[in-house]
Amino acid sequence: MSVDLVRLRILIVDDQTLVRTLISQALQSMGVRQDHIYQAADGTAAMRMLDIRMVDIILCDVQMQPMNGMDLLKELRCGHTANVSNLPFVFLSGHADRSNVMMASQLHADGFVVKPPKPADVEKAIQTALQRARPEIDPFSYYHISTGTDYDKKVFGRLFETRTPIAHDGPEESCLTLDKVKPGALLTRDLRSRSGHLLLPRGATISANQLSVLKDYSERYGVAQIFVLDNSETAVNPVVRS
């Protein structure tokens, strides 16, 4: 059974204006509403878009600066946007080499469309992605998948390498129940599941999406309380940074 394209909200991410325009035109010819098509020129702009727009699928270039497509997908899968972390995600690529395909598979991408994209290929990729069974929502399982980029090393690599204690020059540490923790709160202790698996290291911030997952899947994680800096007034940034 095919997906009703009229209802779809789609984000196109590509650093070439011409590519975004061509795909947008192709989507409209398929029946997608123009006001349901959003565009971003790179991963950073896409992250901002995904915090203010709810979408059904992302069509994304691989090679972009400063944040490429793989890094954007990892950020999404880790729950660092307002959209659901297992959102359908299709890559646009001039060369889907083996390393990219393997990494995309680890991050549960939904396929590749070769550039320049043909409308029929785009529609087929969208239909296939939206009819696939979605991967389990588990934003904490993607942190250790390395994309090999400078962005990934800066944002994710140092996060898990740095094991120094959190300085307590200002606010004091608090142990709060999940409903009391604000998105963007800084962890003062490692966050572990009931079984002892490391979910987030101390020094990370926790996003609204991640808090929601901990609440919705309480039986899986067994997390009821979190140790954070008592800085509730400034804890508003939902994105993890080292």
UniProtKB/TrEMBL annotation:
Q: Which InterPro entries match?
A: CheY-like_superfamily, Sig_transdc_resp-reg_receiver, ST_Response_Regulator
According to the UniProt record, list the residues that bear 4-aspartylphosphate.
D61
Q: Show where the Response regulatory domain sits.
A: 9-130
Q: Which SMART domains match?
A: REC (SM00448)
User: What are the UniProt keywords, alphabetically?
Assistant: Phosphoprotein
Its BP terms in the Gene Ontology are:
phosphorelay signal transduction system
Q: Which CDD domains match?
A: REC
Which PROSITE patterns does this entry report, sorted A to Z?
RESPONSE_REGULATORY
Pfam families linked: Response_reg (PF00072)
Kindly give the SUPFAM superfamilies that the UniProt entry links to this protein. CheY-like
Asked whether the UniProt record includes Phosphoprotein among its keywords, one would answer yes
What protein name does the entry list?
Answer: Response regulator
The record lists the organism as Chromobacterium sinusclupearum
